[in-house]
């Protein structure tokens, strides 16, 4: 098994993450200046999707195009992962041909299984447990706005038992960020993730608190973050969730409890009137499209790092 996979945001040490951010910053500057380094010429990324995507597919595919490589998109119906063919056989066959694999899966165990049997690096493009690529781009975005990461307060309001929340908590623990999360009772982070984030925070100088009161979580925050209340795979619970999460909408009133220069973040897709008020996501504090764009720059740097090209 190739030891360089990216399945969890904790797979990288802080120095590796910093190196990826530097490379992402460089690649962003270059592409904005119209310069394209064709350093992935002849390399192929295989993208396996069990769920829909806009940003993840576009950013990976465009990354490969701009770096001179190629990306192949495999839709859920193309390969029937684990149905038409076992996950391990898909990994073995795909990794005999492609140079790197990205997979978006329902169960986290599926992407772990792919990595276990792949001869080439495997990237988690979102599972039920984590969304590490999103968080790489988000950290890049926060650093662009706040010029630092350690010591900031990052508040998440909404579904705690959620891939984005989990990866944010773990990243905060690694990087010395003070992470607070407000979720309804019964929708807190998975205990093993909360424990891991708390443990990491102890050595980095960060902290982690879980509360049910959104005002408490958001007070004095530098960053206020939310995500959909109904993640892919949770659709059957839609009616129930809309009721339970209603007091957790990020409104202009809630944003007033954060620092005056706080930024608002959302990984997208967003549902205005549910997890966020339109005036917040479309307002001056929102950086959601910087986050979306930074998926491209962060993932280019990620692929380049995993392929050992620079
Ligand atoms: N944020 C994100 O991963 O978007 P997609 O689901 O559209 O890829
Ligand atoms: N938590 C969301 C993220 C979408 C990018 C989901 O899993 O659907």
UniProtKB/TrEMBL annotation:
Q: Where does L-ornithine bind?
A: 163, 227, 231-232
Q: Which HAMAP family match?
A: OTCase
Q: Where in the numbering of this chain does the Aspartate/ornithine carbamoyltransferase carbamoyl-P binding domain appear?
A: 5-144
Q: According to the UniProt record, what class of enzyme is this?
A: transferase
Per the record, the major location class is: cytoplasm
Identify this protein by name: Ornithine carbamoyltransferase
Name any one Pfam family assigned in the record.
OTCace
Q: What is its EC number?
A: 2.1.3.3
A GO molecular function assigned to this protein is:
ornithine carbamoyltransferase activity
Q: Where is the Aspartate/ornithine carbamoyltransferase Asp/Orn-binding domain positioned along the sequence? A: 151-306
Which pathway does this polypeptide act in? Amino-acid biosynthesis; L-arginine biosynthesis; L-arginine from L-ornithine and carbamoyl phosphate: step 1/3
Q: What SUPFAM superfamilies does this protein's entry cite?
A: Aspartate/ornithine carbamoyltransferase (SSF53671)
Q: Does the keyword Cytoplasm apply?
A: yes
Q: Give GO terms for biological process.
A: citrulline biosynthetic process; L-arginine biosynthetic process via ornithine
| Catalytically driven reaction(s) | carbamoyl phosphate + L-ornithine = L-citrulline + phosphate + H(+)
Q: Which residues bind carbamoyl phosphate?
A: 104, 131-134, 295
């Amino acid at each position: 098994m190739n030891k360089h996979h990216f399945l969890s945001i904790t797979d990288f040490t802080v120095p590796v993450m910093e190196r990826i951010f530097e490379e992402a910053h460089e690649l962003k500057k270059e592409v904005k200046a119209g310069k394209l380094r064709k350093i992935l010429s002849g390399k192929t990324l295989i993208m396996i999707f069990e769920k829909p995507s806009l940003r993840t597919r576009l950013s990976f595919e465009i990354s490969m195009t701009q770096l001179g490589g190629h990306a192949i998109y495999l839709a859920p119906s193309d390969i029937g992962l684990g149905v038409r063919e076992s996950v391990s056989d898909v990994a073995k066959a795909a990794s005999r041909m492609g140079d790197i694999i990205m997979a978006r899966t329902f169960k986290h165990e599926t992407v772990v299984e792919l990595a276990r049997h792949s001869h080439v690096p495997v990237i988690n493009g979102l599972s039920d447990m984590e969304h590490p690529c999103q968080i790489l781009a988000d950290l890049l975005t926060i650093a662009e706005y706040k010029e630092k990461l350690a010591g900031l307060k990052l508040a998440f309001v909404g579904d705690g038992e959620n891939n984005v929340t989990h990866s944010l908590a773990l990243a905060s623990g690694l990087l010395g960020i003070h992470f607070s999360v407000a979720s309804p009772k019964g929708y807190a982070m998975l205990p093993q993730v909360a424990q891991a984030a708390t443990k990491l925070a102890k050595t980095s100088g960060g902290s982690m608190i879980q509360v049910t009161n959104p005002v408490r979580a958001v007070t004095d925050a530098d960053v206020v973050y939310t995500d959909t209340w109904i993640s892919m795979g949770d659709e059957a619970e839609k009616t129930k969730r809309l009721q339970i999460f209603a007091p957790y909408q990020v409104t202009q009133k809630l944003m007033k409890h954060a620092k005056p220069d706080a930024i608002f973040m959302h990984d997208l897709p967003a549902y205005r009137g549910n997890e966020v008020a339109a005036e917040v996501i479309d307002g001056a504090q929102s950086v959601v499209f910087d986050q979306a764009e930074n998926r491209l720059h962060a993932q280019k740097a990620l692929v380049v790092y995993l392929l050992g090209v620079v």
